[in-house]
Amino acid sequence: MGIDLEGLFQVLAPMVDGAVMDDEAVGSAYRQLMSTLMTFDYVVVFAYRGKERPIDLYSTFNARDHVLFVSLYQAGPYLLDPFYHAACEGKPGVWRMRERAPDRFFSSEYYRTYYVQTGLAEEVGFFVPISDEITVVLSLMRREATGSFSPAEFALLKKVEPLVSALVRHHWADLGRRFDAALAKTGRSRRKSTHPPADGVWQHLNLTEREAAIIELVLQGHSSESIGLKLGISTGTVKVHRRNVYRKLGISSQTQLLSLYLRNLGQ
């Protein structure tokens, strides 16, 4: 008879009640737990609150990779990340990146110009809401040489979820104050923070609210059909808006659109 791992982890979860540890200790505990179950190349943990700049809680990257996976990501590309948008939904669970990605994500300009640089074969994340506003995402990453997570490994991750959630909720329960402190350093208020850098891009470029909504979804990797379903408009209307935006911005490709978007972030 095999071990009932799901039952075991459910019993262990309430035991995560010691003194609150710092970020490095919590992240290391998570990494060590995962390493007893399967192999992976990287760990990264982000906390998200609305559209504010995410807080990097822990990672295992070297200095060079940290620039790509953390520093550059926090500068703006997080707004196009499927895991970021999933975190904003506040739904707990374990997800593969491909489960959360829009229908054209893997052919989007964001994927080709940013995500491909990571050299990842797959990313899997634990999504742990700790309040109505804040979700912590703990990612396990595998490079192409390591390969994707097997169905059996993914099933095991689902079984360990109660323990991971308990670990996060106990040790990272007070992240709201850290988001407030980060905002205070920038001189921005919570009210203003609900309007992310991306909103400023569209205002700066004189796009209408509808045009901005459509172009954001294009950059995230949605097809015209998917955008139409999300916004409740026809595919033809979506295409007309896209043509109008391209003409208004003086561009002819998604490559130019992404470049313009990233260049104008924060203005």
From TrEMBL:
<feature type="domain" description="HTH luxR-type">
    <location>
        <begin position="201"/>
        <end position="265"/>
    </location>
</feature>
<dbReference type="InterPro" id="IPR000792">
    <property type="entry name" value="Tscrpt_reg_LuxR_C"/>
</dbReference>
<dbReference type="GO" id="GO:0006355">
    <property type="term" value="P:regulation of DNA-templated transcription"/>
</dbReference>
<keyword id="KW-0805">Transcription regulation</keyword>
<dbReference type="InterPro" id="IPR036388">
    <property type="entry name" value="WH-like_DNA-bd_sf"/>
</dbReference>
<keyword id="KW-0238">DNA-binding</keyword>
<dbReference type="InterPro" id="IPR016032">
    <property type="entry name" value="Sig_transdc_resp-reg_C-effctor"/>
</dbReference>
<keyword id="KW-0804">Transcription</keyword>
<dbReference type="Pfam" id="PF00196">
    <property type="entry name" value="GerE"/>
</dbReference>
<protein>
    <submittedName>
        <fullName>Helix-turn-helix transcriptional regulator</fullName>
    </submittedName>
</protein>
<dbReference type="GO" id="GO:0003677">
    <property type="term" value="F:DNA binding"/>
</dbReference>
